[in-house]
Amino acid sequence: MKWIVAILTGMMLTWNAVADRVANLRPVIHEAAAVYGVDPVMMEAIIRLESGHATSKAARSKNNLAGIMGRRGQRRYASKEDCVRDLARILGKYKAKGRVTVAQVSRTYCARSVRGKWISKVTSFMGEIRRGRWGAMPAPVQPKNNP
After folding, report:
1. How far is CA 106 from the centre of its chain?
2. Tens digit of pLDDT for each residue in 43-64?
3. What is the Cα–Cα distance from 43 to 105, expressed in whole angstroms?
């Protein structure tokens, strides 16, 4: 029984360390969100879902944290920060078209076949982020003009 508790404890500590990879990007997430006037919590939730908390193959090999697609499959980024900024830019375009809720964003962002689960998971992650599951959120960044 003790070894089961030890294994579970180790798994929880590993999960928290992995999740911190995304939490460490919060300053960039908040800065990019302010530039484009989008919700940083939604951005973080999308990143957590699409990249498996920054552990997916695309996150590791292409710095693609958000499942962002290009003409030839998933886009490659020079850095994770570049991907975060691109996600903010994309969500900013959606906002300009009136798509600001998770459900509205999902209509363009993800495939129809997974839309319901995507909405549910992003919404769930948003709640967990707001409740501080991965640490307290930093103070909001003052909005900036769109580039």
Report:
1. 14
2. 999 999 999 999 999 999 999 9
3. 11
Cα–Cα distance, 3 to 26 (Å, whole number): 35
Q: Quote the CA–CA distance of 103 and 73 in Å, as a whole number.
A: 24
User: What pLDDT is stored for residue 92 in this prediction?
Assistant: 98
| 101: in domain | yes
| Structure tokens, 82 | 């570049």
Residue 140 lies in a domain: no
- CA dist 32 and 84 (Å) reads 7
CATH number of the domain enclosing 117 = 1.10.530.10
Q: Model confidence over 3-23: pLDDT tens digits? A: 665 565 555 555 555 547 899
pLDDT, residue 136, reads 83
Exposure string (b/e) for 66-83, b if CB count within 10 Å is 16 or more?
A: bbbeeeeebbebeebbbb
Say whether pLDDT at 81 is over 60: yes
Are the CB atoms for 77 and 67 separated by under 8 Å? no
